[in-house]
Structure formats: structure tokens, C-alpha cells
Amino acid sequence: HRLRLRVFRGAQFPWYITLIGYLAFTVLGCVVVPILFPGTVWYTVLVAYLLCPLFAIPNAYMCGLTDWDMSSTFGKLVIFLFAVWTNSIDANTGIIAGLATCGIVFAGTSQAATLMQDFKTGYITRSSPMAMFIAQVVGSAAGCCLAPVAFFIFYDAFDVGNPNGPYPAPYGKIYRSMAIIGT
């Protein structure tokens, strides 16, 4: 047990590196997300990034206890909140902004729960948490490049989203309907 604790606590990030990384990605998101999703204003994206830790910490805790990731539930809550808020700013943008901010919170809470599960496994196997975190960052960066490519290959090859096709995408309709209810 002592060896596990020594290995697990041996390589920690300084708190200021964590804070600088979080702030840098928050600023990057506040600039890029409104460009990608017109109608989503920077301060709603900022609030979504600030909500991430408030949802990520209990989600990681619940996931550690039950092995159930509740990220989608927190994301659905955010859809309603931000769809109402952005609809009050501009009546034409509530749906897109609600879905975009849902994606931000969903991704943040999901990554936190996944990383916590990885740390739990790393503690049991005596792995370095620094190495695990770096592997998570590399995997996320690779996913940012590979996931859109895989999506567009799949999207071009098959009839995605057609209700009568082989891939009707029912969750897209559900999430959009929830954003419509919020507006």
C-alpha cells in the first residue's frame, strides 16, 4: 500500500500549470466556438467552461463509486439552461448555442470521469499519474484530428440522419428537441 501511494504521489503537476492550461483552453474555446457555431457568444461559452468543474467533480465521484458516467445528464441540463439564456439574447440562436454549450460541458465532465477511472486503475497497477495524464492528452489530441475524419468518411459513405436509412441518428433528434423545448 505504501509503495502504491509513493508511486502515485511521486509525480504531480504543480497547481499553476493546471490553472494555466485550464485558462488557456478556456480562452481558446471562447474564441473558436463562436466562430464554429454562429450565434453562440463568447460569454456563454465562458460560463459553460466555468460550469465544467462544478459538474465534473461530482460526476467523477459518482463514476468512481458506481462506474456510471452521468456526463450526458449534465449535458442535457445545460441544453435547457443555455437554450433559454441565448434565446433571450437572440431568438434565432438558442438551439445552436444550447447544443454547442452542451457539447462543451459534456466533453469536460466526460474527460474528468474517464481520467479519474484511469487514475484509479493506475493506482492499482502502480503507474505514474503523470504518464497517464500525458497519454490522455495525446489520445485526446489524436481524437480531435481523427474523429472528424472518421465522421466525414462515414457521413459521405452512408445515409446518416435519414429516418428511413440504416443510420437514422435518433439521439440527434432527441437533443435538438430538448434545445427546442428550451427556447
Automatic annotation (TrEMBL):
<dbReference type="GO" id="GO:0016020">
    <property type="term" value="C:membrane"/>
</dbReference>
<keyword id="KW-0472">Membrane</keyword>
<keyword id="KW-0813">Transport</keyword>
<dbReference type="InterPro" id="IPR004813">
    <property type="entry name" value="OPT"/>
</dbReference>
<dbReference type="GO" id="GO:0035673">
    <property type="term" value="F:oligopeptide transmembrane transporter activity"/>
</dbReference>
<protein>
    <submittedName>
        <fullName>Uncharacterized protein</fullName>
    </submittedName>
</protein>
<keyword id="KW-0812">Transmembrane</keyword>
<dbReference type="Pfam" id="PF03169">
    <property type="entry name" value="OPT"/>
</dbReference>
<dbReference type="InterPro" id="IPR045035">
    <property type="entry name" value="YSL-like"/>
</dbReference>
<feature type="transmembrane region" description="Helical">
    <location>
        <begin position="12"/>
        <end position="35"/>
    </location>
</feature>
<feature type="transmembrane region" description="Helical">
    <location>
        <begin position="41"/>
        <end position="61"/>
    </location>
</feature>
<keyword id="KW-1133">Transmembrane helix</keyword>
<feature type="transmembrane region" description="Helical">
    <location>
        <begin position="95"/>
        <end position="113"/>
    </location>
</feature>
<feature type="transmembrane region" description="Helical">
    <location>
        <begin position="133"/>
        <end position="155"/>
    </location>
</feature>
